[in-house]
From TrEMBL:
InterPro entries tied to this protein: 6-hairpin_glycosidase_sf (IPR008928), 6hp_glycosidase-like_sf (IPR012341), Glyco_hydro_9 (IPR001701), Glyco_hydro_9_Asp/Glu_AS (IPR033126), Glyco_hydro_9_His_AS (IPR018221)
Ranges for domain Glycoside hydrolase family: 90-514
Superkingdom of the source species: Eukaryota
GO biological process: one example: cellulose catabolic process
Keywords annotated in UniProt: Carbohydrate metabolism, Cellulose degradation, Glycosidase, Hydrolase, Polysaccharide degradation
Region entry Disordered, spans: 1-76, 444-468
The keyword Hydrolase appears for this protein: yes
Protein name as catalogued: Endoglucanase
Active site annotation, chain numbering: 450, 493, 502
Skewed-composition ranges (Basic and acidic residues): 1-12
Length: 531
């Protein structure tokens, strides 16, 4: 991935042009969307490039695969006193490396994962789309747009809210270009206004293969959403991700930022105009990422992000209106790639500060997590209905929400309790119970994450490694948060247990953002009260 030329040196605040663009930057309010259409014409859509499709192989293993121990910037003296002694800079550094280990497509000279090589170079070739890049979903090699776009949105939000923490950790540039990898793919997956490729790879076929992505030879079908077969959830979530990304890149690369926002505007129009739960258009996804909660939360979420990115009044009206009419003012207790209604409350409270409705709803839901929510004996927030699969993913997402609630200004009455509960969840993941649940970090970390490419020893047939638990993964998948314990705090570090030891891009998204938020608090007023 090539580096972008910055317009100016990034600064702690001006790097992201505050939270909004200048008034009038994208035209006057226009409910009939003529302004949106006019702006969409300002960006140049990349055309299909057949070069990679002419390659003989779809992948190429690295020439010198090896483990390398990452380096990180030591936190300032005294900061660890507020982080239970944990080096959060190390956690941030390694979590970003996890996303780099999940990269698909051609890897450049700046690849920092020496055991990864080029892969999926022919993805999309049969439909004349450049879908070779993006992130692999989990320990497998499928590209699912809905969880990937959600991960990019949540990571981008963490950058916007806690960028001084990323800057202090020395990882600001790395995290920005980390999400660019997925943003590029989301734009490539949107070759025309009403077409979006929401999945690459057959989940069942992919899961039957235990090996590295560089050596895959299976068929990798592409699944498309159109006006005849639409899908609101992934298209709206992609709009949210691209809108959030456009804010980050506004002062780094104005042309790229414009392209991000242009795609976001078109995708939202597509998602909103042709409403349909996407698993009905792509039945193959239902086994893996069915939209259980429906698409209302994605429409509310995306409308808020488009207002934040564009400041077009149409989206202010849409975000506020949908919040009521689509019943986004009510929320379930979960936060995930499927259900982001709690995050909608928080985001609306941030961007519409003058309206107490959103703050009150944030307080209601955060108070419920403190007072009513189930916990394991050792203090992990645990919902028996959903937490059995990826318990730490849910706990980390709740931590992200709670930290955001604790940071609202003026403070909510129970903001201190929100902070303490959030830190308890993150501490659990990092080692409060006597072991770490983050690969390559802390005391007794997982050594057998359910992850194909990191498990394989170069030159060996590793097809049996999915069930072989006699040895650790050959390469360390630094920074990956594993699924975690059950409701009784029981956990076994076993690669064959794909519930407890699954890793996934959405697992780390809320976790990484919350870790940055915790560091932000430890940095004091220069970060925590910046927003």
């Amino acid at each position: 991935m090539g580096k972008l030329e910055r317009d100016a040196e990034p600064k702690s605040r001006g790097f992201f042009c505050d939270k909004y663009p200048l008034h009038g930057q994208f035209g006057e309010p226009d409910p009939d969307q003529s302004t949106i259409n006019e702006f969409s014409e300002q960006f140049t859509r990349k055309k299909y490039n057949p070069t990679l499709c002419s390659a003989k192989e779809s992948g190429k293993p690295p020439s010198s695969p090896k483990n390398t121990e990452p380096k990180w910037v030591e936190a300032e003296e005294g900061e660890k006193n507020l982080t239970k002694g944990y080096e959060l800079n190390e956690v941030i550094t390694k979590s970003i490396l996890f996303y780099e280990a999940q990269r698909a497509g051609p890897l450049g000279d700046d690849n920092r994962i020496p055991w990864r090589g080029h892969s999926t170079l022919k993805d999309g070739c049969k439909v004349k789309a450049n879908l070779e890049g993006g992130w692999f979903d989990a320990g497998d090699h499928v590209k699912f747009a809905l969880p990937a776009a959600f991960s990019a949105t949540l990571l981008a939000w963490g950058i916007l809210d806690y960028h001084p923490a990323y800057e202090a950790s020395g990882e600001l540039e790395n995290v920005v270009y980390s999400i660019k990898w997925e943003l590029d793919w989301l734009m490539a997956a949107h070759p025309s206004p009403n077409v979006f490729y929401a999945q690459v790879g057959d989940g069942d076929l992919d899961h039957s293969y235990w090996g590295t992505p560089e050596k895959m030879s299976m068929k990798r079908p592409v699944y498309k959403l159109t006006t005849q077969n639409p899908g609101t959830e992934p298209t709206a979530e992609a709009a949210a991700a691209l809108a959030a990304g456009s804010i980050i890149f506004r002062q780094i690369d104005a042309e790229y930022s414009t392209a991000l926002l242009g795609h976001a505007l078109e995708l939202f129009a597509f998602a909103d105009r042709y409403r349909k739960e996407y698993h009905y258009s792509i039945p193959e996804v239902a086994k893996f990422y069915k939209s259980w909660s429906g698409y209302n939360d994605e429409l509310c979420w995306a409308a808020g992000w488009l207002y934040r990115a564009s400041e077009i009044e149409y989206f202010s009206e849409t975000a506020r209106g949908y919040y009521k009419s689509l019943k986004c003012n009510y929320a379930s207790s979960s936060i995930s790639w499927d259900d982001k209604s709690l995050l909608v409350h928080l985001h609306m409270a941030q961007i519409f500060k003058e309206d107490e409705t959103y703050r009150n709803n944030v307080a209601r839901e955060a108070d419920a997590l403190i007072i009513k929510h189930n916990k394991t004996p050792k203090g992990l927030l645990f919902n028996p209905e959903i937490s059995k699969w990826g318990s730490l993913r849910y706990a980390s997402n709740w931590a992200y929400f709670l930290l955001g609630a604790a940071r609202l200004d003026p403070p909510l009455p129970n903001h201190k309790e929100y902070y303490e509960l959030a830190i308890g969840q993150l501490g659990y993941a990092l080692g409060d119970t006597g072991r770490s649940f983050v690969v390559g970090f802390g005391k007794n970390p997982p050594t057998q994450p359910h992850h194909r490419s990191s498990s394989c020893s170069p030159g060996e047939d590793c097809s049996s490694m999915g069930e072989d638990t006699s040895r650790p993964n050959h390469f360390k998948l630094f920074g990956a948060l594993v699924g975690g314990p059950n409701g009784n705090d029981q956990y076994a570090d076993s690669r064959s247990d794909y519930i407890a030891n699954e890793v996934a891009i959405d697992y780390n998204a809320g976790f990484q953002g919350a870790i940055a938020g915790w560091k932000c608090y430890a940095m004091g007023h220069k970060c925590w009260h910046l927003g």
